[in-house]
Amino acid sequence: MRDWAEALQQFVDGITSSVAVVGRDADNELVVTACNEHFFEMIGGRRVGGRMFPFHLDAVVPSYARHELRSKILECLASGAPQEIEQAYDLRDGSHWWRLSLKPLHHLEAGRDSTQILITGLDITPKMLLTHELEVSTSRFRSVVDAAYDAIITIDQSHRITLFNRAAERLFGYDQAEMIGRSLEILVPDGHRAAHQGYVDRFAHSPVRSRQMDERNLIYGQHRDGSKVPVEIAISKISVNGLVEFTAVIRDITDRVHLMELLQRTAATDELTGLPNRREFTDVAGQLMRAQKDLSLFILDVDHFKRVNDTYGHDVGDEVLKVLSRVSVETVRHKDMFARLGGEEFVAVLPDADAAQAEALAERLRGIFERQAFEHAWKAGQPVPFTVSIGVATRTAADQEIGSVLKRADQALYRAKEAGRNRVACG
């Protein structure tokens, strides 16, 4: 017995890691039959009776670690199978983490098998500290990602989603749990999926690490309900274990797009009547001049409009202009454009209309206003009579710009007024 104990103690003293041998005494209590200095250092330097063996395990192991260690030792004794446990011990210089491996040792004592447990401990404090730092870092990263105003989505090389933050949930209407592992294509409108996949593949092979996606054109994401969401995307890539991973920061620009559309409409629309303004008319008419061979236009002016304002007030004068705009738009053809040049002067451009067709349409419109052949509840309480004069011009082979046709129509309008107003004249 003594030879076995001495040999065992010499064996554990020669090991550089923490080592202890635990068995049972006559009272069936767990006792340490051998251990080295590293074992005492591991548990906090507590010694019982110098280096006399055996001594009770409970006497040296701190109470906070005792129950878990005893359970593993008893399990190892009962099953005969190796066990493993990770434990932290609070020492003067801080907490230390150890990975303890428990293996049964079988030897004959007094002619019968006596099993003890060999405990070897490996200090894993640096690893645990690094793991903790990574967990903290990951937690901070997740907090930042989830708190971000913009949607953040990460995909792998197969275009499968690996990260989907809360802003992405709000933007696209999907829960994070249902999106992880799914193809990114679900967030791309049908007509853009092939182009999008090609874009990402080209970016994967590009030396550029990050860029603004589709910097020249407005791009859209697809919401769960099928609607399209205008977005702005910045995309970056990193290599993870030899595979390319992409992260996109996606900003909802719906408000910006609506504002731009409003500004565009404002720039092209007359505020009072809602008709295209002079600038929009000039642009559209110029395009029609380049695209259409046959084209006519007419200029319309309200006769004695100052008299209307002086008699009924400017509010009713504005009402006359609105009524004129509505009725004129309803009267001209669908492909014609009716616009306000300014004041009480309006213009219509008539593609594919010759002089006779343009004159007939102008005459019809003049007659409607002369007869008050439209319904309207006047603010003045009674119909406000007004007439219009119209000058018509048709494009000739010599006309290269809309301005020359417009000038002849204006000259014809002047003749109509000189001839007594409430009439159509052609130039």
Overview of the molecule:
By secondary structure, the chain is of the alpha+beta class. It folds into 3 domains: 2-123, PAS domain (Beta-Lactamase, 2-Layer Sandwich), CATH 3.30.450.20; 148-256, 2-Layer Sandwich (Beta-Lactamase), CATH 3.30.450.20; 269-426, Alpha-Beta Plaits, CATH 3.30.70. It is built from 13 helices and 17 strands. The protein has a 6-stranded antiparallel sheet. The termini are far apart.
* Domains (count): 3
Strand content: 25-35%
CATH uppermost class of the largest domain: Alpha Beta
N-to-C series of helices and strands:
HEEHEHEEEHEEHHHEEEEHHEHHEEHEHE
Radius of gyration: 45 Å
Average pLDDT, all residues: 87
CATH superfamily of the largest domain: Reverse transcriptase/Diguanylate cyclase domain
Distance between the amino and carboxyl termini: 131 Å
Question: How would you sum up the major sheet?
Answer: 6 strands, antiparallel
Shape: rod-shaped
Please tell me the CATH architecture of the largest domain by its name: 2-Layer Sandwich
